[in-house]
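Show me a record, fold above all:
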Amino acid sequence: MRPPRTVMLLLAGALVAASPATAAAPEQAAGTGPPCAASPPPGGGEARKALDVARQAKAEQHLNSVLVRVTRDGEEVLTAALGQSMTGVPARPDMHFRAGSVAIVYLGIVLLQLVDERKARLDDPLSRWLPDAPHAREITLRMLGASTSGLRDYVTDPKFLAALEAAPFRHWTPEELLAYPAAHPLWYEPGTGWSYSHANFVLLGAALEKISGTPLDELLRQRVMDPLGLAATRDRSTPEIPQPVLHAFTRERGPYEESTFWNPSWTTAPGAVLTTHICDLARSAEAVGTGELLSPAAFRTQLDPGTVGLGGGTKTCPATVCLKNTEAEHFGLGVLVMNGWILTNPSFSGYAAVQAYLPAERLAIAVATTKGKDTPEGNTAQTIMNGIAEELAPGHPAPGGG
C-alpha cells in the first residue's frame, strides 16, 4: 500500500510465521468455499494467450511467483500459478496473500448500501458519527469515500515512513495513524480537490461501525464476503495469514528480505485488513465491476461520486499529489475507473495484486505477484494485467494506457 509513482495506477488499498505446506485455510477445510485450483494446461485460445503473457512477464521481471485467474461472463478462462512461494515450495492458486486496497472498495460498497437503507447520507458531516475526528465538521462521508477530504496521506509523511521502516512488525492504532495528517493543514478546502489519503479510509471504517452498530470485520463479512461467497477473504487482526501462504519478499528497507508477516495494521481501518486468494479476487472483480451488491443508482455513484473534473495542481497542493480526475481516468467511491475498466491494485510490502473488470467485454482479470531480488519497482501485477487485457480485449485500451 505504499504510494505509487503514479497514484492513479497503483493506489493501494492494502504484513508468527507458518509452514506453507500444510492444510488449507480453515474456511476451505470446513468446505464452505469451492476449491481454488489450476485449470488444465491450455492448448490455445484466450487461456493460452493469458498464460503466455504471465510466463513472459515472470521471466522478464524476475518474479518469484505469479497467480492469475481470468473469467469471461463469469466462466473460467484460466487459473494458474507460476513460480515459487519460497525456495522449493511451488506457488499454488489457493495460496493466501494480502488484499490491501480491495478492502477500500468494500468500504465504499457498504457505505452506499447504508445510504440506500437511509441509515446515513453521503453528505452527512463526519462529526455526526465521529465528532472528535480531524476536521470532522468540514468533511463528509462522501469526501472520505471519494478521497476529496483534503487530509494528507500519512503514508507519504517522512516521519511515518521512517517509523514504519524502522519497525515493520509494529502494530499501529488508528489514533497513531491519524496523528500524522492532523499535524498538517488540509491540502485544500474539503470537497474542492482530489488527493489520495489512507487516512480517509481509516476514518470511513470507524464511521461505518458507528452507523451500523456492527464491528467492521463482521460488517464486511455480512454485507460483502458472505453474499459473494468469498470464503477465503477475511479480516486478520494479527499479521497471521491463513495457510497455505504465498510468501513475500522485498527490498523496501534495502536488503532483500522476507516481508510476509510484517504487520499490516497501518494499511487501512481495523477490521478491513484482509487476506484472500486468486479465485476470490477474480470473483470480487466480477461483483464490483457489475455492481452486484448495489442498486443501479448507488452503482452509478460508486463509479463517479463527483470526482470527475477535480484535482490538478494548485498553489497549495502539487500536481503530483492532487492528481487530475478525468472522465477516462478517475477515482470513484473506493475504486479506480480507467479506460472503461473498474479496478483496484494494491502494492505493498513485497505483494502486488490487481482485480479488474471490463463491463464492455464482461471480462475479469485477477493477478497477484511476489518479487524476486531483481524485480523492478512498480506494481508488477498491474503490468501483467495490462498485457492480458491487450490480448483478450484488443479493442479497448488497458488501464495502463495501452
Notes: The mean pLDDT is 92. DSSP finds twelve helices and 14 strands in the chain. The longest strand covers residues 75-86.
